[in-house]
Amino acid sequence: MKLHGAIISPNVRKVIIACMVKGINFESNIIIPGPALKQPEFLKINPLGQIPALEDDGLTISDSNVILQYLEEKHPATPLMPSTPKERAAARWLSEYAGAALFPVCGTLFRENLINPNYLKQATNQEAVDETITKKFPPVLDYLEAQTPDEGFLFGEAIGIADISVISMFINAGYGGYSVDENRWPKLAAYVERGLSHPVVAKCIENEKDMIKMITG
Ligand SMILES: N[C@@H](CCC(=O)N[C@@H](CS)C(=O)NCC(=O)O)C(=O)O
User: Fold this and answer.
1) pLDDT for 189-213, tens place per residue?
2) Which of 14, 75, 106, 185 sits a CA distance of 20 to 30 A from 61?
3) φ and ψ at residue 2, rounded to 5 degrees
4) Ligand 1 test: best mutation among 37, 50, 62, 68, most atoms within 8 Å of CB?
5) Does ligand 1 lie within 6 Å of residue 63's CB atom?
């Protein structure tokens, strides 16, 4: 199985965490967002020109949520989905919400505060950063706060697809200098901390250290 992507991309990290939790081995093709994703060779793998993309035994698929569903069905041991139809639907929804609502806001801080000044040597768009923190983040965090349990993960004691989707986005926000305000969103802040200290997530973050160092110099 071959995973195309960069380990610090949040949607790619979702797949890496799922593989690590399930004990699935994969080969990694490191490809970073930028012109490489729009080359004909990569567009044959994913015509949308995005990572992650996965090749497995003649199957080529993209989109982190689609990939996670595939891995869940192919490797059902150590499930990442809850057991009831209602909870499974809710887990898919929260994964979708993380991609649609959290990814853009976390991505802005990651790009503007980490990638642009350090890697691309471009000025941070401070207006975009301020607007993201003051206007765009709060409604998303309000919604997530209301979904967050007092203890454990979103659908029980074990980490699952929805948790992986949410936590992975916050890792990138963290690289962009952002952390959830525990006074305003106490349940969410504690939940994110629990997620970051999950052994597999912590190992993933450890594995990313060299790349982050390379970016920050
Ligand atoms: N819905 C997709 C989004 C994938 C996506 O936006 N990936 C980013 C990296 S995390 C990317 O490839 N960006 C480059 C681009 O869109 O040109 C998923 O969940 O995998």
Assistant:
1) 999 999 999 999 999 999 999 999 9
2) 106
3) -120, 130
4) 50
5) yes
* Global confidence as pTM: 0.98
Region label for 33, one of left (φ > 0), alpha (ψ between -120 and 50) or beta (otherwise): beta
- In sequence order, what are the residues at sequence separation of 6 or more whose Cβ sits closer than 8 angstroms to the Cβ of residue 182? 189, 190
Q: How far is the CA of 144 from the centre of ligand 1 (A)?
A: 22
Q: Does the N-terminal peptide bond of residue 52 adopt cis geometry, omega within 30 degrees of 0?
A: yes
Pick the closest to residue 13 from 167, 173, 148 (CA basis): 167
Neighbours of 91 (CB within 10 A): 20
Task: Please indicate whether residue 5, judged by its CB atom, sits closer than 6 Å to ligand 1.
Answer: no
> Are the C-beta atoms of 12 and 31 separated by less than 8 Å?
no
